[in-house]
Amino acid sequence: MTGLVAAVRFDVLTVRPYAKQMLLMVAGVGWISVISTPPSAVVAAGSVFAALVAAYPFAIGDKNDLGTLQSVLPVARATFVRARYLAVVGLCAASLAVCTVLALVASAARDVPVAAGELGTVAAVGYALYAVLVGLQLPVYYALGYPRGRLVAYLPLVGVSAAVAGSTALLGDRAPDLDAWLAARPGALAPALVVGATVVLAGSCAVARRLDARRARRAG
Amino acid sequence: MTGLALALHGVTVRVGSFALEDVSFELPTGYVLGLVGPNGAGKTTAIRTLLGMLRPESGRVEVLGRTLPAPDDLRQEIGVVLDRPSLVEDWRLDDVERALRPFYRRWDADRYADLLAGFGLDRRAKVKALSRGMAMKLQIAVALSHDARLLLLDEPTSGLDPVARDELVGILGDYLVDEGRSVLFSTHITSDLERIADHLTLLRAGRVVRTGTRDDLLTAYRLVRGSAEELPEAGLVPLLGARRTPVGVEALVAADDVPLLGPDVLVERPTLDQVVVHLGAPATARTAVVA
After folding, report:
1. Distance from B230 to chain A by nearest Cα, in Å?
2. C-alpha dist (Å) from residue A96 to A45, A86, A101, A111
3. Which of A41, A156, B89, B138 could bond B128 through an S-S bridge, CB–CB 3.0 to 4.6 Å?
């Protein structure tokens, strides 16, 4: 087993004892699937819940001093960072799968048909939303550690949102018309979202590796 | 067996306000090095430096023939027991193996099972349910289960009852049957070292007070007892770690200085514990006693 696979497995096993706590999230998503209109909206909503769960390994690691354990295991720190990102992508995939099933069940129960294309697009939106939330959150934990990082983890998201809102307001009519762009390319939205989200996560991972290395140098 | 399992050469490491200063010691392959000293002497800092967790400001660190920083794969060869376990508290002992085994090419599941059974640890127990001594045993089981060539044990007997400490010494003895294996064992329980350590390094306030073989350390000093009048004046013979007792003064002196002492001074071979107590005492207590 390679170090990367071992590290991903380590992350999964780290959160596994706390799976029952995550059932609360699943229950929340289940409830949304009952009330959401259209039923497919639960797929995107699930991504927001999953982004909250993505912080669990940091919280558990901080509580149990797993950083020390990782530093004596025969794997580079950077490998643990990459593994954490792979694990959170896996978490998103699991969330999308569960929520898609919930959407289909809700659709059948409420006799509201859902098209496969619609589900695919919503899943891509969910993945993109998750990538932004996680991609902005995780580097903060690597830079500051979980105890300090959790207090400011969403500041980058607030900053980016404010920057987007501000630039849209400033540009006014000169702002790019995304609706028109998408209307001209009906099949482009989902692939664009998936590619964009993956780029965001890859970039976030690269930044997180640097921040983690810097934090380790300061600690040592 | 030739070569060094580990060596520090003039290493200075700072951790907050504490520093290891110009520390040098070495462990020949195939032997046990006892790292002794009072709390805060720098034993844990030295071990963390050997693990590459702390980077020296100056000096050179060698582990298993490699100068640090070395490739991460070198840690395949190192078993580690730290002063407190770093494991998910809700893991069962089976989960500990599931989580750690994939990292090690030579993980021996049977050995892990045997060690847990030998230590009386229930595989279904959770880490958080273990006492301090039990948690230490779990760390020792992990450290011995991946066929490491070097064990770095930071206070492994801390929290263990005498029977368990005896078991550990026996296990380390078995481990050392293979000549290519070496152990660094930090402790302040010197009776453990009397039984197993071949070499000793005594640390005090971040500096090496003495390093060498155990026999050299024990023969280098004598314990002297006498009244303040019987013992020599300050400066003539350094009285190391001098302290008043109900019947006079007790101190350590260099064995070479014994002929300079008066005839009424009682001279004995010290135990390791006495050497550590006197050499590990604060510097202010290492000069001659004022009558």
Report:
1. 50
2. 10, 15, 9, 21
3. B89
